[in-house]
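Section 3.1: Structural characterization of target chains.
Under the original work plan, the team committed to producing a structural model for every single-chain target entering the pipeline before any wet-lab resources were allocated. The record below documents one such target. The sequence was received from the expression subgroup and is listed exactly as submitted; it comprises 185 residues.
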Amino acid sequence: MALTESNEFKIGTKAPDFTLVNTVNNQMVSLEEAKGANGTLVMFICNHCPFVIHINAALVKLANDYQEKGIHCIAISSNEIENYPQDAPKFMQQVARQQKYPFPYLFDETQEVAKAYDAACTPDFYIFDAELKAVYHGQLDSSRPQNDIPVTGKDIRYALDNLLANQPALEYQKPSIGCGIKWKS
């Protein structure tokens, strides 16, 4: 497994718009429909990445904790599925149901959304304010598979709490790290 860091995403950048299929219910979902009143966390994840599997429970808890505060989470999988069939929509639906995802799990079949966000890895996290301007792009926390640091979501929780309090996010936003997005050739 090759480790990949997230690319730089300029703070203040407007969230690229999208409409994708939610694999949980096969309904089309747009960013505008899924965004939160106070902010939105866009997460590029997938089914098979050990970095995502490591934090799945924390993502569910995070989404449940902030949903009532007007922060909505949106998960997107952009991996190509010919060589990675375990990331196909039918398996995304299974994972979403097993993990009890309280957020839509969207499939970016064309990979255009991942390209628009310059997403590089799974997981890759982007926090946007109520006007969909980027305030944070970085790691969930310092936990990684096999590093014995507990998964807390500390960095993203700090950024979300600051967003809700109209305070700046972390000054230094440490890049996320994980498996590289599986691009079509």
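The first helix runs from residue 31 to 34.
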